[in-house]
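Model it.
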Amino acid sequence: MPTSVTESSTNTQSTQRNRKYLTPVERASILSARKAGVSRKSLAAKFNCSLTTISKTCKRVEATGTVETAPRSGRPPKLSPSEVRYMILMAKRNPGMSWAALLDVCPQPVTRNTLKKVLGPHFRPVSQTS
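Modeled.
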């Protein structure tokens, strides 16, 4: 039995090391365990994170009152998700369309580079005229 626990904790560690943030469920269980008197060190070992992460998580939850991840700052996307879906649909339906024609049917004024990033592998124009 201890072998399987070690194996599962090893698998968990490799999975959690790749993950960027604690989930809201993990944050809630950390907070409730801290309130119940569980040490930071044992929680850090259980969730495979640092002592600082445990402390900052508790402080952040108490300050904000929520276990949800805060929205990140940054430039907002030029096209909405529905507009992106529309452009992908247009590119798939009309594979011979030029970039200029795609830019004309785009609901928002965007550059060719923005459209390339949005469409990604969904569209490769036949002619490179713009």
